[in-house]
Design goal:
Layout (H helix, E strand, L loop, with lengths): L22 H10 L1 E2 L3 E2 L3 H9 L4 H11 L3
Antiparallel strand pairs: 1-2
């Protein structure tokens, strides 16, 4: 959601989880939908591949930096 707190009914976790990801891990999550521990997700994996894989590295880095502030 807009408050970045996630939505359990989707299931979408809080985006504060990004704090636990290095930039490299976050970039892989955005590009391939693969989370830490080689996890794939019901919503994020297909969404990342379809909608986020085209982001440039500097755009991914900016999103990662932004999410580190929460």
């Amino acid at each position: 959601g807009q408050d970045l707190k996630g939505r359990p009914e989707v299931p979408a976790p809080t985006l504060a989880i990004a704090k636990s990801y290095s930039l490299e891990q976050f970039a892989r999550l955005m590009r391939d939908g693969i989370g830490s521990g080689e996890r794939q997700f019901e919503v994020m994996t297909p969404t990342s591949r379809a909608r986020y894989s085209h982001f440039r590295p500097d755009e991914v880095a900016a999103m990662h930096a932004f999410l580190q502030t929460f």
